[in-house]
Prior knowledge:
This protein is 40% helix and 31% strand. The chain is α+β, with helices and mostly antiparallel strands and 144 residues long. Strands 1-2-6-5-4-3 form a six-stranded antiparallel beta sheet.
Amino acid sequence: MPYAAPKLIALAAASLFVGLSQAQAQAQPCASNFKSAGVPMLTALTYRTWDLIPNRAPAVVLPALARAVAADGFDGIQVDKSLGTISALQEVTGSGRPQTLRVTARPSGKGTRVDIVFTVQPGQIAEEGGTRAAMCKFISSARR
Length: 144
């Protein structure tokens, strides 16, 4: 039985790898669906992404999304449950020109599709990696 321990270690490592791969696969669609459009400083920049949340109805997902948006410092949050939308503003530049966030949660099969659009006005910029991470964090918060 000198090879029993290495076999168990290999089996445990394979199980860990499969578990991590599944977690990454679940978290990846939001990031891979992320797109941006616009010319920095010259035109408005629009960042958008979407993802599916399986086995959760829009009525359950929407409040969780609104809490995540509020926790991230957005103001003027308006939730329309009948339309499944959230609108919010964020002003971090001191210019008095807010950035807008729009979130929709709509039925998709046995779950909910969440779409997020974040718009930065001309003359302003938002770091793409941080914007993607924040948007995906909003979606992730609705999975719990």
